[in-house]
Here is the input.
Amino acid sequence: MDVKAYGLTDVGRQRQHNEDTFLVADEAKLFLVADGMGGHAAGEIASRIAVDSISEFIVHTKEDDGTWPHAYDEHYTRTTNRLMAALRMANTRVLEAMRKDAKLRGMGTTVVACMADDGKISVAHVGDSRAYMIRNGKISRITNDHSWVYEQVQAGMLTEAEAEKHPLRNVITRALGGALAVNPDASEIDSQPGDVYLLCSDGLTGMVPEEEILKLVTENANDLEQACKELIATANARGGLDNVTAILVKTT
Here is the structure.
């Protein structure tokens, strides 16, 4: 399966530093968005550590199952297992950095990652950075936010509309660097030609509703660079309250 991809990040209109980091690795068909958190630019360090660690792990496990010391989950393909193990290793690297430098304590990062392999798209994530699929003129969310408000939605205490406006909507319940062990959620999708997959930080989804994301991507489906620019420009026009990052991956 061939894919083409483009990614873009922007500091937004309110922040002084961009703590988002992304990766478009065409050869490995690996795509990542990480949204860091922590004072004194520590969030930027956490997201960079995560992206570098995941990329390194995927490259080094190209010829093996690549999950050691983590168990291999038979419910998923080898590619998805490698991706989940890479996120767990990144968690370890973020924790190690905090142990070595007290100024970094309290930092963390979300991450959403996908790989294309053998007709499938593997997705793994921790936190509230999201993955979407756009197919046949419809948008569907692949990931579920690891956040307090989403847990309330699942429990029936909040509606989706209430969650989108809730003052605690940015409180996440799972992140790299937040605990000694982390459990990524994973999904596998049988891809079709013409599918477009969006990976993004909450700086996009907090500003631009899903139906408008669908419209902007669909209108620019043949120009992924322009589509990314339109998504980020729209988020900034709405106030740009956070760093905003988007990667679009199209199967061909």
Helices lie at 42-60, 78-100, 148-154, 160-165, 202-205, 210-219, 224-237. The chain has a mean pLDDT of 94. The domain at 3-251 is CATH 3.60.40.10 (Phosphatase 2c; domain 1).
